[in-house]
Amino acid sequence: MKTWRVNDVMTTAVVTVSQDTPYRDVVDLLVRNRFSAVPVVDEFQRVTGVVSEADLLRKIEYAGSEEPRMFDGRRRRGERVKASARTAADLMSTPPVTVPASTSVPAAARVMDGEGVKRLPVVDDLGRLIGIVSRGDLLKVHLRPDDEILADVQAGVLRPFLADDIERVHVAVDDGVVTFTGRVDRWSTTDIAGRLTRQIAGVVDVVDQLEYDYDDSTVLGTGIAYGIA
Known about the structure:
- Helices cover about 35% and strands about 25% of the residues.
- It is α/β, with parallel strands linked by helices.
- The protein folds into 2 domains: about 5-140, CBS-domain (Roll); about 145-225, Histidine-containing Protein, Chain: A (2-Layer Sandwich), CATH 3.30.1340.30.
- A 3-stranded mixed β-sheet has the order 1-2-3. The protein has a 3-stranded mixed β-sheet with strand order 4-5-6. Strands 7-8-9 form a 3-stranded mixed β-sheet, with helices on one face.
- It starts with 5 loop residues before the first helix and ends in a 9-residue tail after the last helix.
C-alpha cells in the first residue's frame, strides 16, 4: 500500500524571487500568476523566506499612519517595517515554513493548518528549493479513481490482514467511499480493516457493514493492542 508523499503531488516548476526583488515586482508576480505567496531564494536556491499577500498589504494597511509608538508590540513593529519595505528581503516572513519532499500528504496538511499557510516550499536535504505544494495539490489524492483505491484496499488490507476471511468479505468503492460487507471471525478484524482503509490516499469514508462471530473488543481494547495507531 503506497504512502502518498509531497513529491507525488507538488509542482516542480516554481516561480521565485530573490532578496533584492523590488516591492512592485513582487506584487506584479503574485497578481499576474494568482499566487498567494512566493518563495525567496538565495544564489544557491536555498529558501530564505516567503513573501505573502499579507506581507504586501502592510504597505496599504499602514499608509499614512502615525509614527511608531514606544509601546508598540513586537508584532506591530515588524508590520510597520514591512510597510516601508522596498525589497523582498524586508518583506519576507522568516524563518520560512518548508517541508522535505518525503513528507507524507497528511503531515503536510497538518503543517499547513498549524502554521496557517496555503503553500509550502519543498526542499531537499540541503535546503534547496525543488518544488512547492499547495492546499489544492494535497487534495489531488481525492481525485484517484475508485479502481485504484480498491486495488490498494485489496493489496494493503484484505490480503495481509483478512487472509483467513477473504472469501467471505466483499469490498466496493464508490466516489472514494469504501464499503465492507460480509462476515469475519472477530470484531478486531473489522476494526483493523477500517483503521487501515482510512489511511489509504483518496478514501473519503469507510462504511463497515461486516458481521463477526466473536466480539473480542473487551479483551483487546483499542487498536493499540494489535499495533495500529
